[in-house]
Amino acid sequence: MEFPKATPEHELLTKMVGEWTFESEAVMGPDQPPMKGTGTESVRKIGDLWVVGEWDGMMPGCDVNMKSIITLGYDPMKNRFVGSFIASVMTHMWLYDGSLDSATRTLTLDTVGPSFDDPNVMAKYQDVVRFIDDDHRTLTSRLQNNDGSWMEFMKMTVTRTK
Fold first, then answer.
1. Are strands 94-101 and 50-58 parallel, antiparallel or unpaired?
2. Cβ–Cβ < 8 Å for 130, 142
3. Which residues 6+ apart lie within 8 Å of 53 measured at CB?
4. What span, in angstroms and rounded, lies between the C-alpha atoms of 156 and 122?
């Protein structure tokens, strides 16, 4: 049996491997100022095809420590990035299906999860990762409004420490 070989898309994800710090800003509700949070991220490879990141940090606007795990890979059969996200403060597992804009080095990860307004209703979300350079990236989370527009509710700036 021949195993899959890493593609350039897999190699892009390995740029995330390492130790990182992050600063985040999140909007906790309408007409409220953004709340700030900080933390660390440790990303490792699983073979040449997957990366796993573990986050540990304070949630913006409250005194709650959140731990989370993100997995990312690339499925050449689908021509799509795939992955998952879980967090210690949530019961929902977020499943990613994403695409890369090579020109802007931006990875857009589509997902579905509980609506802010009604946790019994599912809503569309995106986590957007922009690779600025090998030592810096951003992560922006946004929710699709009923009119189809996107509302950004969290932005994270991630900086390599080693």
1. unpaired
2. no
3. 16, 41, 42, 43, 69, 70, 71, 72
4. 24
Report how far residue 1's alpha carbon sits from residue 35's, in angstroms, rounded to the nearest whole number.
Answer: 51
Structure tokens at 128: 């957007």
Cα Dmax for the chain: 58
Global pTM reads 0.92
Instruction: Tell me how far apart the alpha carbons of residues 9 and 13 are, in angstroms, rounded to a whole number.
Output: 7
Bridge-partner residues for 82, per DSSP?
73, 97
Chain position carrying tokens 């998952």: 84
Query: Nearest-CA neighbor of 69 among 83, 55, 50?
Result: 55
**Per-residue pLDDT tens for 106-120?**
999 999 999 988 889
**Number of other CB atoms surrounding residue 34 within 10 Å:** 14
